[in-house]
Amino acid sequence: DVKVTQSSRYLVKRTGEKVFLECVQDMDHENMFWYRQDPGLGLRLIYFSYDVKMKEKGDIPEGYSVSREKKERFSLILESASTNQTSMYLCASSYSEFRYEQYFGPGTRLTVT
Amino acid sequence: SQQGEEDPQALSIQEGENATMNCSYKTSINNLQWYRQNSGRGLVHLILIRSNEREKHSGRLRVTLDTSKKSSSLLITASRAADTASYFCATGLKGTDKLIFGTGTRLQVFP
Description:
Number of helices of chain A: 0
Number of domains of chain B: 1
Structural class of chain B: mainly beta
Oligomer: heterodimer
Number of domains of chain A: 1
Number of strands of chain B: 11
Helix content of chain B: under 10%
CATH topology of chain A: Immunoglobulin-like
CATH class of chain B: Mainly Beta
Distance between the termini of chain A: 37 Å
Radius of gyration of chain A: 13 Å
Largest sheet of chain A: 7 strands, mixed
CATH topology of chain B: Immunoglobulin-like
Order of helices and strands of chain B: EEEEEEEEEEE
Number of strands of chain A: 11
Strand content of chain A: over 45%
CATH class of chain A: Mainly Beta
Distance between the termini of chain B: 37 Å
Number of helices of chain B: 0
CATH superfamily of chain B: Immunoglobulins
CATH architecture of chain B: Sandwich
Radius of gyration of chain B: 13 Å
CATH superfamily of chain A: Immunoglobulins
Largest sheet of chain B: 6 strands, mixed
């Protein structure tokens, strides 16, 4: 079975802190994704990576950056956390070629105070 | 930009009844997928239907796709309390591996 793991289930950070969210997948998937989920808004794509060191902005990239140095690992970075970044963050991975389902991690609930 | 819109937003039924959820989308798609999310957890893929397919079954799940109306439905037959979750449709656009998710339907199945 595909396994996607995220570094923390719950995280509390202070405004202005630099925050790292880590995601690791074990199925040699080319694609990895970071979403945030907020009530009433569904899942919104922050960033997408289709290969090592390759990335593409999603719908809401402002305030975030990403890093993919190895195929299995995709990191989301909040350079200076703000209270409006309090949310559930979900990582996912998939094979490429426009026809595959995404596999999700358990999510990280981030609170910025 | 939200591609998929689910209807209804919330649905409550008794065990044994069928549950139907609908999804509408705006642009041409490569495929449409349905996911399930238990409270506070990640999403789990349920079923994928390609743009050239009209109906697909998987166990108690039946998905239909009408590309002329840009809509899909998910039917869960003989529901169980364990089916209580949020259900999301996601559209796969042509030429990209990205998915666009809707806002979801919250299903509550009472024993």
